[in-house]
Amino acid sequence: MRYLTAGESHGKQLTTIVEGIPSLMPLTKEDINESLLRRQKGHGRGKRMQIEKDLVDMAGGVRHGYTLGSPIAMVIHNDDFKHWEDIMGEDPFPEGEQIRRVVTRPRPGHADLNGAIKYGHRDIRNILERSSARETAARVAAGAVAKTLLKHLGIQVVGYVNEIAGIKAESNPDLSMEERIRISEDSPVRCLDEQAGKQMMDAIDKAKKDGDSIGGVAEVYIEGMPAGVGSYVHYDRKLDGRIAGAVASINAFKGVEFGIGFEAARLNGSQVHDEIGWNEEEGYFRQTNRLGGFEGGMTTGMPIVVKGVMKPIPTLYKPLQSVDIDSKEAFNASIERSDSCAVPAAAVVMEHVVAFEVAKAILEQFPNDQFPKLKKAVEEYREEVRRF
Ligand SMILES: Cc1cc2nc3c(=O)[nH]c(=O)nc-3n(C[C@H](O)[C@H](O)[C@H](O)COP(=O)(O)O)c2cc1C
Ligand SMILES: C=C(O[C@@H]1CC(C(=O)O)=C[C@@H](OP(=O)(O)O)[C@H]1O)C(=O)O
């Protein structure tokens, strides 16, 4: 399974094509819209999210509520395009207007300067339109297809916020999947700890008032995976490695951890590795889950627990120094609009990019042409694992 996205932040639309989903799988646009709506919520977003109402147009691969086995094409229209038609239209600018609203001032921390150098653009708009995290809406659409496949196989995925600006949520490993989903949905910052969530909101309001931005940590939690998905035999088949790559590819994400993550560097082996148990009903299990559901690039059958670190948003109302690429003069960056914190939205993006990698690994391991056959094979495998 693979996917491609196309489209600019203020262009007409975003397009996603997902290829490799089996035929005969139930899929509706509501499955996708639910995910798109989740991504748009969250305290700390700027004015752009008030303009957009992300809804998908299914443009291929689905008929009467079922997948065909052909590529699935999805379109999300940018409502903001109507304000940018003259700037983002495909026709050349009228004579004499070429330099109108050309962007020559790169923002520290965004893709602006490196992108302009790499692609030889003197108008930084040609970079920022595609490097913008608007594209994550298209990635969420792809992930929503994957999440739907996992749901029909009894695998649930949720993303939430663990930390914002140094304020940490108290972790509660006993929370059920249903509680994780419900609380993260109710919380304006998608935090499972209500008290910490309130403090996070205050921190976001303060950052916004100060013209600054803040980052944090998101966590994705997956239940229902059988043991032995992924592989140890080759670097590019290790599922934890693929997940790490997918998480680090999200805009502004700078680090990934599984389970106790970097904390493992400070502990002894006896305090890190999860002891193995067995009982008649479940088969093998781990007494703890410090390694976050992976050993040897394969799932252990315990929940997958992965964290991603998001840096603060680069576009700031508070000026940072930069250099104009035309005049080469120093200037203090000032901007029109931006998010001050997007960690709650990014937790949803992370949920979907991780879901995609997990679904892809499952499709590689089991028969993948027809969904009912896939489902039967996964059920038989689960039973095999239980009796092993
Ligand atoms: C959901 C989401 C929303 C974002 N919103 C903004 C924003 O409003 N302004 C901004 O400068 N960066 C925003 N970013 C981050 C930039 O897109 C990102 O920093 C930029 O693409 C450069 O990539 P890098 O930080 O991974 O190096 C957002 C990221 C995410 C995931
Ligand atoms: C549009 C989205 O996020 C955008 C990501 C983004 C950036 O630079 O990454 C900049 C902002 O867009 P604008 O410049 O239009 O205000 C965010 O709103 C979205 O998440 O749908």
From TrEMBL:
Annotated binding of FMN, by residue: R130, S131, S132, N251, A252, G296, K311, P312, I313, P314, T315, R337
Keyword Amino-acid biosynthesis: yes
Record keyword Phosphoprotein present: no
GO molecular function, one term: FMN binding
Leader peptide range in chain numbering: none
InterPro entries, per the entry: Chorismate_synth, Chorismate_synth_AroC_sf, Chorismate_synthase_CS
Entry keywords, A to Z: Amino-acid biosynthesis, Aromatic amino acid biosynthesis, FAD, Flavoprotein, FMN, Lyase, NADP
Biological pathway: Metabolic intermediate biosynthesis; chorismate biosynthesis; chorismate from D-erythrose 4-phosphate and phosphoenolpyruvate: step 7/7
Subunit structure comment from the entry: Homotetramer.
Entry's family note: Belongs to the chorismate synthase family.
Protein name: Chorismate synthase
